[in-house]
Amino acid sequence: MIIAAQEKPRDQEVKNSIFNVQAGFAGIWLNNEAKIVNNLVLRSEVGLSAGLWGGDYYDNTGFLMTPLLHLEPRYYYNINRRISKQKSINNNSGNFFSLKTTFHPNWFVISNYDNLKIISDFSVIPSYGFRRKISQHLNYEFSAGLGYRHLYLKDSGYNSNKSEIAPDLTLRLGYTF
């Protein structure tokens, strides 16, 4: 009797769909990465962005959380290289380029100040980043970029809206379902 065994080849692509909950210094988010083709995903996200402020003009240090909607095509460019070096690609661990599009609507604000409103904004930011697996379900993620932000100032009573250059720096700890 002859017995032959073959090692199953590891996937060389991102997962079809993964769900994450992530937390960072500036909020908490729930997201999904849905595979488009081999190493390209579309990340959709909802969450609460946080902010702090203080100074001579305020009685107390201020805190707020406001909703965020996020859509981001993400290209994981080094999946095959990670596999060739026998590094994990679980839960889409790898380096990526992305185009972050984010909208902060003025729907509601959670704050220690009453009747606080934010100015809605929309941003498009090309970014570079990476995600790494800590354990089967835990991961961390970092990204940085520089792009464009449009502030809807007229909605808050100003004479005109404003556009500006917007930096983005993200560091998050996440749990993949």
Molecular structure report:
The chain has one domain. The protein is built from 1 helix and 9 strands. It has one helix spanning 79-84; strands spanning 17-24, 27-37, 40-53, 62-76, 94-104, 110-111, 121-133, 138-151, 162-176. An 8-stranded antiparallel beta barrel has the order 1-2-3-4-5-7-8-9. Strand 3 and strand 4 (62-76) form a beta hairpin. It is elongated. It starts with 16 loop residues before the first strand and ends with a strand. This is DUF481 domain-containing protein.
List keywords for this structure.
DUF481 domain-containing protein, 9 strands, mainly beta, 177 residues, 8-stranded antiparallel barrel
How do the helices and strands line up, and which of them pair or pack?
Elements: E1 17-24, E2 27-37, E3 40-53, E4 62-76, H1 79-84, E5 94-104, E6 110-111, E7 121-133, E8 138-151, E9 162-176
Antiparallel strand pairs: 1-2, 1-9, 2-3, 3-4, 4-5, 4-6, 5-7, 7-8, 8-9
